[in-house]
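1st attempt posting a full record on here, be nice pls
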Amino acid sequence: MSMRTLPLVFINLGGEMLYILDQRLRAHNTSEDNSDKGVWSENDRKRVMNDIVGTMFSKAFMDELLKPQQLYSHRTLKTVLTRLAHASIMRLNPASMDRLYELMVMAFKHQVLLCPRPKDLLLISYNHLDTVREFVKDTPAAVNQVDETHRRIIETYGLLSEGELQLLRQTLLIFFQDMHVRVSLFLKDKVQNPNGRFALPASGPVPHGIEVPGLIRMFNSKGREVKRCEFPTGGSYSSSIRQGSFELHGDRVVRLGRNMYSVCHPEETHTSKPPSVKTDDSPNLLAKEELNLLARLMGCMKVENVQRSGTGFRINLFSTDKEEEEAGASGADDSMFGVINIQAMQDVQASTELARIAGEFADLPENPSGSKGDDLLAMMDDL
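the predicted structure (as tokens):
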């Protein structure tokens, strides 16, 4: 398992999250029915993007993230990304966050599967960074944060050998192997089968520096070519166009990692589980670290943190989903907000009780090993 996988996972999943949030917030902002949006405006959308990017690419956070470490579990990683999404005035309910995470993971999984060669994982990451930089182009401080992170990624991964990059890709494939969530956009483009598995093409350009298959050459003991023969490849292959740029700016050539939601409709972000997949809701007895992490997170959700953020926005990201509508029927009271936002904020009594419980645990000795992901989340609290 590669110890350098976490930063790329976080940057690429975070980039996909920003793509989806931008698309959904634009859809809400341009909806014909604006009667329930209150003071929601384009400036609020930009503020959400700037706040999330500012937290995501903060120096202290990236310092911790770039340390060699094992890849987190899906549960812990989703907790970190949920905290990241809530770094702004926006709040997501659990149903929205579940679908958001599924979309992020399936999009990045598709990109990893189609990656021509392990080194092109960096180009995919650079495409995400380029688009995120464009989201916050009107905020110089945020652009500088993205640029600094980009430079550090180049320094960290630019000198890795092909073997190390292959190990990184293999770690990603293991991480994604049990995720088979159906996405309407992928189903529509016929790149995903009804069972949630991707249909990979057997044709197209070969990786840069690789010859088109179909030819066998034989050499004698002196290294001189003596015979050639061709064989059917079963696909239609072509030479790669050119090498993509691995610098801070430039043409990446590889299109994987770009914003695929910029031209799609809101309903195309719908996700669903394959009919044959059964969800196991039983507790994981081996997830002690993740459970400890969640307990500490619950203790951090104080009422003061909600009030300090000012007026928040609650928004249903996936209102076309039946499950989202059912979740909304039992959502929390929106009276504490100025506009219609997401149904995810805890009520005062629950938050106070959780804060009291957290205070009781604060007197206990700290676990010297710490919970996986605690350092990152603690830094996010301080930002």
